[in-house]
């Protein structure tokens, strides 16, 4: 199941896999929900050139691939608008943001990714 899950490349494939898991095993435990959310974020991060996402209760960190398909000028403008956003090296963007629960972290990551525009 993990191999099949890691091979899901679209939200639709992931949704089909989630439906199959619920059909086979019933309601998903919190750990499985976390795993599915992680894979949804992985799929959403790919077009932005994100290779790593770290999220704690107080900070979100996004690491970009070399030469990501994101407008550098847009990142600079975001940093100028929000004092909680900072560059941490040439390929990492950090956002100081309180998010205690999994749902809050996922929502915050999606919000930050939504602010990034591709070239």
What do you see in this structure?
By secondary structure, the protein is α+β, with helices and mostly antiparallel strands. The protein is 50% helix and 17% strand. It is built from 5 helices and 4 strands. The protein has helices spanning 2-6, 11-25, 30-45, 72-81, 102-115; strands spanning 50-55, 59-64, 85-87, 92-96. Strands 1-2-4-3 form a 4-stranded antiparallel β-sheet. A hairpin with a 4-residue loop joins strand 3 and strand 4 (92-96). The longest helix is centred in the first third of the chain and has 16 residues, at 30-45. The termini are far apart. The model has no long low-confidence stretch (mean pLDDT 93).
Helix amount:
40-55%
Could you give the order of strands across the largest sheet?
1-2-4-3
Distance between the termini: 35 Å
Mean pLDDT: 93
Judging from the principal axes of the Cα atoms, what is the shape? globular
Sequence stretches where pLDDT stays below 50 over 5 or more residues: none
Number of helices: 5
State the order of secondary-structure elements, H for helix, E for strand: HHHEEHEEH
Strand content: 15-25%
Number of strands: 4
* Gyration radius, in Å: 16 Å
Estimated structural class: alpha+beta
Please outline the major beta sheet. 4 strands, antiparallel
């Amino acid at each position: 199941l993990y191999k099949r899950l890691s091979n899901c490349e679209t939200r639709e494939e992931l949704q089909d896999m989630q439906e199959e898991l619920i059909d086979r095993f019933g309601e998903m435990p919190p750990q499985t929900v976390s795993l599915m959310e992680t894979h949804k974020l992985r799929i959403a991060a790919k077009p932005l050139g994100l290779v790593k996402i770290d999220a704690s209760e107080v900070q979100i960190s996004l690491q970009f691939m070399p030469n990501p398909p994101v407008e550098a000028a847009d990142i600079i403008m975001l940093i100028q608008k929000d004092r909680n956003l900072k560059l941490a090296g040439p390929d990492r963007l950090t956002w100081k943001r309180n998010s205690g629960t999994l749902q809050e972290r996922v929502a915050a990551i999606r919000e930050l990714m939504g602010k990034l525009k591709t070239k």
